[in-house]
Write a structure and sequence with these properties.
about 350 residues; alpha/beta; Nucleotidyltransferase, domain 5; globular
Amino acid sequence: MIVLGVESSCDETGLALYDTEQGLLAHALHSQVEMHAEYGGVVPELASRDHIRRVLPLTENVLKTANITLQDIDAIAYTQGPGLSGALLVGTSFAESLAFSLQIPTINVHHLEGHLLAPLLEANPPAFPFVALLVSGGHSQLMRVDGIGEYELLGDTLDDAAGEAFDKTAKLLGLGYPGGPALSKLAQSGKARFKLPRPLLNSGDLNFSFSGLKTAVLTLVNQHQPLDATTTADIAWEFQEAVTEILTLKCMTALRETGLDNLVVSGGVGANSKLREKLNAATKRKLCKVSYPRLEFCTDNGAMIAFAGAMRLKAMQGNGNKNYGFSVRPRWDLAELQKPTI
């Protein structure tokens, strides 16, 4: 079965084609980062309009790359939520209307399920069950994953997520938008000079809290005005150390408490080289395995949606939705998902 995947939850338009026999056939992505940088963050109305401009050309792109036609597609998967309402509506309406014209089924996909399953696109995918660290946008969660749709929440963020903390701290340091990657790059030239708190590091549970860490950075910034380049880099270094130490310890605790030895890391912060370095070392010491998606699939993309949709469709023996009505779910708890059934 060949599945077309459509991702439009925020500021990236992603299209991809996944074949359950041959694997990923093609994928294409347009990022709106340059457009939103002028405003210091995502402008929802502009994001929606840009998705409208990009979705058809990107569809044509992946069809041409895979050397197939619309008539070769067996189903269309799309991100129903969570995300920006207007942006989600673009992908959802496009997917349902195209499926209606082709009389093929659709599969509505949870954005975070796409991220969670992205490492399974790799040549040596992790086997179920595993612990998953989801660090994407406003989400920092630890999940136990026993199969498609079989997710148990182990820990969640109580306030700011790791990605939000990176972006807000970057703004405090004057690094602009998008802040996370810029802060990580700057941290490479920093050194151990300051000491920031590690919120909930020894809380006895698997929850996260990064709001207080951001406030501690603000205090440091105010104490060292005007900021010079060296001080900025040293603050960035310590901030990254604090976040990655917390994430690493919580992951190892989750593996110990569940008795599992497979860890999966997904989402934009999962591309952070310092986090990968620490998790690689920690899992090696404990004789565990850690898996990541390739860097291009850490951020939002159509490939993860096509794959998640294909896995659900396969479990349902091809019986997707053919009602062609649609709605979006800007807020949608991953734990609400269920195992696909025929």
